[in-house]
Amino acid sequence: MKKRILVTGGSGFIGTNIIEFYKDNFEVVSIDCAKPRNKNHIGFWKNVDILDEKLTISVFKDFQPHYVFHMAARTDLEGKTLKDYSANIQGVENVIKALNYSSSLEKVIFASSRLVCEIGYNPKDEYDYKPSTIYGESKIIGEKIVRDSKELTSNWVIVRPTSLWGPWFDIPYKSFFDSINKKVYVHPKGLEIHKKFGYVENCVHIMDKLIYDKELNGQTIYLSDFKTLEVKQWADIISQKFHGKKVKSVPIQVLKLLAKAGDILKGIGYSSPPITSFRLNNILTTMDYDTTKVEKVVGVLPYNLEEATTITYNWYKAHK
């Protein structure tokens, strides 16, 4: 008999890739208030908002999942108050309540975010927070709800996705590919910028290992590739696929001027300028996280940077 997997937020970027990974060998149910972005997943989808406590409990009770991936969240940075991010707070509470109706439950993966700390800040431990956004604050509350819950046993892990990319991605992570495709991405001249990003299929592979692992139960880990990438090198790989040549480099002062112009465009209502001060700061800041304990559990990841970029490029071209 097949094991049963329930994914909250299964219509989102990470959720879509989780469903694609498990759909052939497991019974899978996706609950989301949005339709699947992959139309082939419509048969797994139930139109459920996790803020609807009764309906959420009903689905868990009927399906009796063995494994739960709680990916549902509001993830944009446009909210003004914590109330705008109720899905990240009350939604977590509702899912935990629903878990109590799943007698077959073996493991739960709760998704948080690296933005529980501002860009460039390396926390001392998993309880060290320094958010710079309301979204980050909401995710901190969500983490604390999980850790403080009297209803959960220890069969859970909190994952903090870094910047994940790959098939089915969207704004903001797809924007990097868009900017290179449109030849508007330029790299700060002479700067090497190292990031611990995550290719989404590698990260689903990590979570698959975590649902069977007991060593990391009750802990919080960063979800990313294990090797840092150098942004210019990666941009060149992408550009070679689109245009057969490397990206251009310009002095950093030029980029700062362009970013200020992008800020003005965003201020007057342009939704996605090529670059803003926030994006430039994100690009320039080194991002590295300790994944040592995860590496010991998972081992070698299935895709290297070149392979992952090729898969993503092919998906991008097929879904323009």
UniProtKB/TrEMBL annotation:
Q: Which Pfam families match?
A: Epimerase
CDD domains in the cross-refs: SDR_e
Q: By its UniProt entry, which Gene3D superfamilies does this protein fall under?
A: NAD(P)-binding Rossmann-like Domain (3.40.50.720)
Domain NAD-dependent epimerase/dehydratase positions: 5-211
Tell me where on the tree of life, at the top rank, the source sits: Bacteria
Name of the protein described by the UniProt record:
NAD(P)-dependent oxidoreductase
Question: Native species of this protein?
Answer: Flaviramulus aquimarinus
